Amino acid sequence: MSNNSLLFQDDEALIRSLAIGDSKAINFIYKTNYPTIEKMVFKMNGSIEEAYDVFQDSMTILYEKAKANDLELSCKLNTYLTSIAKHIWMRKLSNKKRQSFTILHDDVDYQVAVEDDVSRFAEFEKNVSKLTACFEQIGEPCNSILKAFYVQNKSMNEIAEEFGYTNPENAKTQKYKCLNRIRKLFFNENEQQKKNERII
Amino acid sequence: MNGSFDTYELIEKYCLDLMDEKEKHYFELEMEQNPALKNAVEEYQTLLLSFDHMQSRDFIHASLHHLHHNSRSHTQVIFNQLKLNVNKYWRTASVAASVAFVASMLTFMVARNVYKKDNNAHYQMLNKAIDNIKQDQKKINNEVAIVKKNVIPVPDESAKYSGTGFAINKNGYLVTNLHVIEGYKKIFVFTADNVGHQSEVVATDPDNDLAILKINEEGFAFEGKIPYSIRKSNGSIAQRVYSLGFPKNDIVYNEGYISSTTGFDGDTARYQLELPSVPGVSGAPIVDETGNVLGVISGKQSQSEGITFAIKSKSLLNLFKQLPKDFSSVEIQSNEITGMTRAAQVRKIQPFVCVVKVYN
Question: Residue A200 — very low, low, confident or very high, per pLDDT cuts 50/70/90?
């Protein structure tokens, strides 16, 4: 385990490995950051399970940014990840208590950047849970076809073979129908969410 | 994306960045002139981003799951260290505490002996004084009792907010919405005879917007047993329901059905009802056809007429656990109006539905 620090020369090398989903990089980031973040959440009235959730979310943000080559660090990776985790936890706390917290930070620009990352992530999470609900509604084979193409990145040839279509063109037509159905469900629900509940 | 399969293929090609420069240029020109196409592309991109996010998220969750469950929790380690420390210093701490205890007992006994000597002379007088105090206290107690029997008057000003409440116990326990009473100092419950009774909050559930009030008057009781019961199981979709509330000074009856077993934004703690509601009916009971209360009205959807949300009775039953021991739920476990006609049911229930008014 102590060899881990030799694996990555610097943060940039670590991020490059994370971007391709290298398990060694994920392992290293977990080992070096998880204890700090767990302690922090725990100190701020969180449970161990909540700390793990926060870490998962922070790690997802980091991974997505690394993958999109969109990570310009003005500080150490550890500092960035802890800051992200802190924002996520504050957000969860304020949702829980219906109060808003603000985090004071010396570097305003940096804080804004972290806040943007976290709120974009929250938006994504909302969309994913909506998408999951839509997936449940459309049923099979649409569910598996869409996931195979968009989530598991399989080619149309593989999908045609797997689902027993005579050629990729047929599979493509089916995929189009499925996508259209999920699109309708997804965006209709969006409309509904815009309506607000009002107290009487 | 409402268009044909061909349009869809073009959109996908564009979004996945598979077009050559020329194709891309023409497509973007087309998009500028055709808002429907532009909208379709945006929708497609949102979906693609969500798929992407789902993928990253699943990947990270799976990788971490493997790591996390093979290593011991760090905070658990800190906990154990704390425990160790307690064990280590326990002996020292207990010795110190015993020394302190013995010392204070010694001081107390010495001091007591010194004072005892000249205290006897004042003993008689002190006794008299205590008698006087006793008499005064009796007087005060009597006066307090008189005041207690007198009803605290309803404030002169007009009420700041008004909602509905319904009884869950003969002795003056009522349910209403937390938002009806939250933040106000004086709460009055107006019973069917239009008499206001000062009340206090005895239990709240902020997550479910519920509050339980108790009428603060000695000897207050509703006439007769509570006719309805509170349902332990959830109601089902399409079930017919009705409500009794106070949008004005007189009670108003409304009926409808459960249109969804989840409330606003998929909230599983609420029902969505197709039932008209207007301000003032917050806290009104939702009753099923056999006379069981299955929910409490809490709000409505702002942009549509007739959609009302109600808190499920399960949350209410949970809240009973917070109540003082003198509260008994025996009365609301059985139902006296099951077989009656609707009008007879309503006549029976009516005296137990009250107006809740709040003042500053």
Answer: low
Helix (H, G, I), strand (E, B) or coil at B307: strand
Tell me the per-residue pLDDT of B42-66, one tens digit each, with 9 for 90 and over: 888 888 888 888 888 888 888 888 8
Contacts A199 to B, Cβ<8 Å: 179, 282, 298-299
Per the CB < 8 Å rule, is B60 touching A176? Answer: no
Give the closest-approach CA distance of B108 to chain A in angstroms: 43
Residues A44, A66 share a domain: yes
CATH code for the domain in which residue B222 is found = 2.40.10.120
In this structure, how many other beta carbons lie within 10 angstroms of the beta carbon of residue B139? 10
Alpha-carbon distance values, B46 to A176, A180, B30, B34, B55 (Å): 16, 13, 20, 19, 14
Closest alpha carbon within chain A to B304: A195
Angle between helices A48-67 and A11-19 (to 10 degrees): 90
**Which residues on adjacent β-strands are paired with residue B255?**
B242
**CB pair distance less than 8 Å for A151 and B53:** no
Contacts of A178 (CB under 8 A, 6+ apart): A138, A141, A142, A145, A146
CA–CA dist B161, A199 (Å, integer) = 12
Count of the separate structural domains present in chain A? 2
Alpha-carbon span B285 to B164, nearest angstrom: 9
Return the C-alpha torsion angle A27, A29, A30, A31, nearest 10. 80
Q: Which domain holds residue B12?
A: 5-66
Which residues of A are less than 8 Å from B11 in CB distance?
Answer: none
The minimum CA-CA distance between A71 and chain B, rounded to whole Å, is 16
B293 within 8 A of B287, measured Cβ to Cβ: yes
CA distances from B156 to A179, B121, B153, B359 (A): 64, 57, 9, 10
Q: Are strands B307-312 and B161-169 parallel, antiparallel or unpaired?
A: unpaired
The verdict on a CB contact (< 8 Å) between A195 and B304 is yes
Which residues of chain B does A146 touch, with a Cβ-Cβ cutoff of 8 Å? 51
pLDDT digits (tens, 9 = 90+) for B126-176: 444 555 666 676 666 656 555 555 567 777 777 888 899 999 988 899 999
Q: Are A145 and A136 in contact (CB under 8 A)?
A: no
Q: What are phi and psi of B312, to 5 degrees?
A: -70, 150
Residue that terminates a domain, selected from A98, A130, A162: A130
